[in-house]
Amino acid sequence: MDIPGLPARRAALSMLDAVLRRGETLDQAAGTALRRVRSDADKALARAIAAEVLRWKADLDALIDSATKKRLQDDARPRQVLSLMLAQWLRLNTPPHAVIATGLPLLAGGPRRLAHGVFSTLVKREASLPAVPSLPDAVRLRWGERGDAVAAGLALPPPLDITLRDPGETALWAQELGGVSLMPGHLRLPRGEVVAGLSGFADGAWWVQDLAASLPARLLGAGQGRRVLDLCAAPGGKTLQLAAAGWDVTSLDISGKRLERLRENLARTGLSAKLIAADALEWEPDAPFDAVMVDAPCTSTGTCRRHPDVLHRIGPSQIAEMAQLQSKLLQRAADWIVPGGRLIYATCSLEREEGEDQLAGIGLQVEAVMQDELPAGLSPSSQGWLRTDPAMLDGQGGLDGFFMARLVDKSGGKL
């Protein structure tokens, strides 16, 4: 019979192995690792342990190295188990005796004595983690000085942001849900809420959407019945925003399965959009649109505070691959807007190759984002686009890293 809590730790170790060895996302890894974990509480614990290890891995490794005479290999099982044990003690406040009882069995047939000795040494030293996680070396070199700012936003998982179907009801829902609003149509709630059980969810009054992710659609303003294409639309937060703002929305995504989730959210919220399952690199519209939203596939490094696996599995090859795809999508989408039409380009990436560098050579002009279109604490760049990162809105819960630009066609149209 398993020791109580041991299945959750096994699942966490399996998730780490999948991320660090095979390059899987944490969500992909959880799909397999959690199959044998019965309770929802244990599933949540397993994910929390794995996420904290990934968030603080560089610092956990430094602690382990400080207590070993001979450095453990990076992919050695004892190192991963010790990382799990330390994350529970230092980040999840698990008592050391419980950490040992559920950690050492993960090394059955292996160096339990070594792991026990290293962990006990660090407990006796009253070891601690820094206030801000250290970035992995490769990420720190890639991001340079701005990486220090980004890292400051990674210490805690994010709160729960929701977007309201009717921004005019912001004060009403803030009172109903006990949330804080950072701009009309937005509410921020404490993390850990069970979404489906909250007032207004079943009635479709709101949907979950990070504050940064909600900003690109806002840059198009009121639709007044005009036609907009939401390219790469699923899971659909921006489609819902655009439909709620009065746009005639066509939503295209390559994944029919992901569009089903969007269809369900449209039904729940009482909003409407035309859904098309197709490859944007092959599909052609029948007529141009007044606006196109290109929230492009990307490396998602801007979501590192909620998906810390991106800090360990994204590198130059993935960035280059995504940048090439984004360029192709932008070139096609630029041909699908009417004269004077607008294109919003956005990615949840912190990489220049997927943001600023994409604006050159697409034949559209930047239309500056205005200060009054943004929540207090955010400002557009001098070039008119906006970049957010997890350290911004410090003290208010932060937000994901995004790049977004509003572009306008002044060439007379091409379609």
Give structural notes:
Helix content is 39%, strand content 14%. By secondary structure, it is α/β, with parallel strands linked by helices. The protein is globular and about 70 Å long. It folds into 3 domains: 6-124, N-utilizing Substance Protein B Homolog, Chain A; 159-209; 210-408, Vaccinia Virus protein VP39 (Rossmann fold), CATH 3.40.50. Helix 1 packs across helix 3 (40-66). It has 14 helices and 11 strands. Strands 4, 5, 6, 7, 8, 9, 10 and 11 form an 8-stranded mixed sheet that branches.
The biggest beta sheet is recorded as: 8 strands, mixed
Give the CATH superfamily of the largest domain: Vaccinia Virus protein VP39
Provide the structure class: alpha/beta
Determine the CATH topology of the largest domain: Rossmann fold
Structure annotation, total helices: 14
Helix residue percentage:
25-40%
Q: How many runs of DSSP E, i.e. beta strands? A: 11
Stretches where pLDDT falls below 50 for ≥5 residues? none
What is the total domain count?
Answer: 3
Give the ordered list of helices and strands: HHHHHHHHEHEEHEHEHEEHHEEEE
Describe the structure concisely for a colleague.
The chain has 415 residues and is an alpha/beta fold. The protein has 14 helices and 11 strands.
Main attributes of the structure:
single chain; about 425 residues; alpha/beta; N-utilizing Substance Protein B Homolog, Chain A; Rossmann fold; 3 domains; 8-stranded mixed β-sheet; 3-stranded antiparallel β-sheet; 14 helices; about 40% helix; globular
